[in-house]
Specification:
It contains 16 helices and 16 strands. It is α+β, with helices and mostly antiparallel strands and 440 residues long. It folds into two domains: 255 residues, BirA Bifunctional Protein, domain 2; 94 residues, Rossmann fold, CATH 3.40.50.800. The chain has an eight-stranded mixed sheet with strand order 1-5-6-11-10-9-7-8, sandwiched between helices. It has a five-stranded mixed sheet with strand order 13-12-14-15-16, with helices on both faces. A three-stranded antiparallel sheet has the order 2-4-3. The longest helix is centred in the middle third of the chain and has 18 residues. It binds one RNA strand of 75 nucleotides through helix 1, strand 6, strand 11, helix 12 and helix 14.
Length: 440
Amino acid sequence: MSQKKTNQKTSLVKSRFQIPRGMKDILPEEMPYWQWVFEKAKNLLEYYGFSRVETPILEKADLFYKGTGKQSDLVKKEMYLLKTKESGEILALRPEGTLPIARVYCQYGLFNKPQPVKLYYFGPFFRHEKPQLGRYREFYQLGWEIIGENSPVLDAQIINIGYNFLEEIGFKNKEILIYLNSLGCEKCQNNYLTALKKYYRPKLKKVCSNCRERYQKNPLRMLDCKDEKCLKIKKEAPSPLDFLCSDCKNHFQMVLDYLDSLKIDYYLDKNLVRGLDYYTRTVFEFNIKNHDSKMAIGGGGRYDGLLKSISRIDKPALGMAFGVERVIEALKERKISIPKKEPEIFLIQIGQPAKKEALRLIEVLRKNNIEVRENLAKENVKNQLEIANRLGVKYCLILGQEEINEGMVIFKDMTSGIQENLPIEGIEEFLKRRLKINNQ
RNA sequence: GUGACCAUGGUGUAAUGGUCAGCACGGCAGUCUGUGGAACUGCCAGCGAGGGUUCGAAUCCCUCUGGUCACCCCA
């Protein structure tokens, strides 16, 4: 009978109440990675003068339609949409971070503040794709944007910060790969597209079916094709770099100059096209050398025309974002260990009066910033010592009836096993001294 | 969205269509009612869900769910 009951219970847990597809719980074992990544990023970005903003998970779907171009897959088939009850307005679970930030800049008149405006964000995004490793329906992005200036030095700085971020969280310089390209301004892009189509038109019969489709809808993406037939044709294809106007060429050259002076290595990749249509001029991606996944862990670029496409404000801007799950997966793959805070003291209690005293003592220690672990629900000493041992604490405090009667507490060194009887009164001062000596 | 492969306790795994689904780790407890790191003993906990074939299904078939990989695309 009871057997049946538990079976039912587990099957409910396993089927009906499973987490939805593509979503992921972050469990305590993994949380230190998240905190590590976020802390490092926060310190770095705030050093460079970025302020954190968080925008709602829901935005009007139109924001993304207008901003990314209606033919992009991201809005065409990957957005989670929902209809509001009152007005029937269509809202979307945000699929990316740049447009909400652009919206904030326009909505609150941040163009009236000293330019440029530097903002960063860290939060969940949603895309309805078929999940696999490194690709989830809910994923976190850590991103930063600079809005309001078009100087190429900012392009270099954005990349520099991305590079420093990866270095800060533990990757070696030589592992960090940066791929760079320039798509040029709207004019260059049009000229280039014309040339690209002209090049491909007579070869359409030889390319894969995907590329034939791309030729119509989004010719730039043909540069991304991995089909063997297409690779050959792609080799001879015109490069966007050859179609840059003198301004854009200059801009790109300066970006490269700044990066060189920072001694940051990069690869020029004339086939690098980013998935979102709003990019202009500089685009780039970050990856880790020999990373299992070929997918980029981060990327970004300039989007000088984006603000104008969603508002009356015409300001240049640029930014980048990392996929937090992908960064953490790469960290784990590299076996990069993050510093873990080990507790140093465990408090053992025996009997009801000792539990009372333990509760009081914990408060004394907390007010003195002394970290203490315990397992108040346990009854016997052996048990609690085992737990303390597993936690790897250096010292135990032992409180029993005898000790309480005498106003004492046992202080036990877990390495040597030596114990001393000390007065409870003022034990916090003793512990502070002892821990201080250890930390020197 | 298309295609392929996979699914056994919390974790890692075993079981030619035929005993009560086995083992290890883990968790809880005891041997030892106030002293840990060891040993031994007991207990907890599983065939992802739903159908079908069969005398009999963890095993074969179908559907669903989930995962992984490639593509599309992307962080």
